[in-house]
């Protein structure tokens, strides 16, 4: 069953959780862990403005203009933001770091907390599903990042990265959402095409608002890679020092 995320959502920074009034909250949410460069502004109750552009090669170029655009659409200034929410992955190394570094910079400049959320959790929340399902995103290298959920709010397993073929036996007929599920629909045969395929910062912020209000603890804003970056030092690399 699909309910739609409706703009609800998380906690933060590794501090001890406590319930929080969202009366004066203004959340700036962003995520660059997938090909979608997405930004949203959320007042604790609803999404005020949101931007999403799908371009796997232009995260750094698109993110800051998207922040400016969202703030302008909502009629807000950056210094009004009370909290930063950022998707921590899993995702490819370069794109993921763009969002995390930007979030950390905003947090430091504004003096506000930065809260991390699993990117897969944002996609799960956006799906609105009330039954067990799987979220899968494209991890490149013919692999997917994935996790199981009891419903749109409750993750059952840690995020993992695997080849779709290795998951075939356990994914047949299981409801699935996300670009990875759509890409490998011969494995994820229960793919829900009516659910969002790409990440939504509005859903991420909505999930963060729910968790903040409930006093649930969020993740620290640290990257969740699950595998080593593509660029590595060659095995026979020799350091050359001047004489």
Automatic annotation (TrEMBL):
The lineage is:
Bacteria, Bacillati, Actinomycetota, Actinomycetes, Kitasatosporales
UniProt-listed CDD domains:
ASKHA_NBD_TsaB (cd24032)
Gcp-like domain ranges (all copies):
56-168
What is the protein's species of origin? Streptomyces platensis
**Pfam families registered for this protein in UniProt:** TsaD
> What InterPro entries would the database entry show?
ATPase_NBD, Gcp-like_dom, T6A_TsaB
What the entry lists under Gene3D superfamilies is as follows: 3.30.420.40
**PANTHER family recorded for this chain?**
TRNA N6-ADENOSINE THREONYLCARBAMOYLTRANSFERASE, TRNA THREONYLCARBAMOYLADENOSINE BIOSYNTHESIS PROTEIN TSAB
Query: What is the designated name of this protein?
Result: tRNA threonylcarbamoyladenosine biosynthesis protein TsaB
